[in-house]
Structure formats: C-alpha cells, structure tokens
C-alpha cells in the first residue's frame, strides 16, 4: 500500500528512529512501511495518523479494485 509517511515525517522533522520510538516499533518497521513492503495493522495505522495529526486516509493511499461499469 502506498503511503505518505516519508513526506509527513519530513514535514514534522522526524527521523525514522524518532518516529519508531513514538510508535513503539522498530526502525526497520518504519523503513518497511515507507518502502511499501509492509501493511500496518489498523492500530498502527491509527497511531501513525495521530502522530501526524491527520486521518488514516491522509497517510495511506488505498489502491482498491476499480468499479465495473
């Protein structure tokens, strides 16, 4: 899933380590999230949105199925 974590982290002037500490996850988790290799749990997605003071859908770009017809 695409996301804006790296962009938001830059806006909030946070390192990967600092964000990981706030979310109580490893730096490797942040790296995997930023590269789109890992889809977070709903709980983690919520925590990320709270750190950046926005909605989950402002952080994560859902690429769902297109509607038919």
Written account of the structure:
The chain is mainly alpha-helical and 69 residues long. It has one domain (2-60): 434 Repressor (Amino-terminal Domain) (Orthogonal Bundle), CATH 1.10.260.40. It is 54% helix and 6% strand. It has 5 helices and 2 strands. The chain has a two-stranded antiparallel ribbon. Helix 2 (16-23) crosses helix 3. The chain is globular and about 30 Å long. It comes from Lysinibacillus antri. This is Transcriptional regulator. GO terms for molecular function: DNA binding.
Please summarize what this structure is.
This protein is mainly alpha-helical and 69 residues long. It has helices at 5-11, 16-23, 27-34, 42-51, 56-59; strands at 2-3, 60-61.
What count of domains describes the coordinates? 1
Please tally the helical runs, counting DSSP H or I stretches of 4 or more residues.
5
CATH architecture, by name, is: Orthogonal Bundle
The rough form would be described as: globular
Q: Give the CATH level 1 class.
A: Mainly Alpha
- Strand residue content: 5-15%
Keywords: DNA-binding
Organism: Lysinibacillus antri
Pfam families: HTH_3 (PF01381)
GO molecular function: DNA binding
Structural descriptors:
69 residues, mainly alpha, 434 Repressor (Amino-terminal Domain), two-stranded antiparallel sheet, 2 strands, globular, DNA binding
Q: Layout of helices and strands, plus pairs?
A:
Layout: E1 2-3, H1 5-11, H2 16-23, H3 27-34, H4 42-51, H5 56-59, E2 60-61
Antiparallel strand pairs: 1-2
């Amino acid at each position: 899933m695409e996301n804006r974590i790296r962009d938001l982290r830059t806006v909030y002037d946070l390192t990967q380590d600092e964000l990981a500490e706030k979310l109580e996850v490893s730096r490797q988790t942040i790296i995997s999230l930023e590269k789109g290799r890992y889809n977070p749990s709903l709980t983690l997605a919520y925590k990320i949105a709270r750190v950046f003071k926005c909605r989950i859908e402002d952080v994560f770009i859902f690429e769902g199925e297109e509607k038919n017809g």
